[in-house]
Specification:
The chain is mainly α and 63 residues long. The protein contains three helices and no strands.
């Protein structure tokens, strides 16, 4: 149950942060958190999640 709460919180960050701050920065932060949690603290997972989140946030922020 504890892991479910972590994933729900990470998903909430992923959906909320890009709309509250800069899309690229918010997406990178949320992606890093999700990557960290999904890979049990792997550095590669954290960095990969941050990169993907930043790209997605950048695309969302385009006009």
């Amino acid at each position: 149950m504890r892991h479910v709460i972590k994933y729900v919180a990470a998903a909430a960050l992923a959906l909320g942060i890009p709309f509250m701050s800069g899309c690229t920065l918010g997406g990178a932060a949320a992606g890093g958190v999700i990557g960290h949690e999904a890979t049990n603290g792997s550095t590669a997972g954290t960095v990969g999640g941050a990169v993907l989140g930043g790209v997605i946030g950048h695309e969302i922020g385009k006009d």
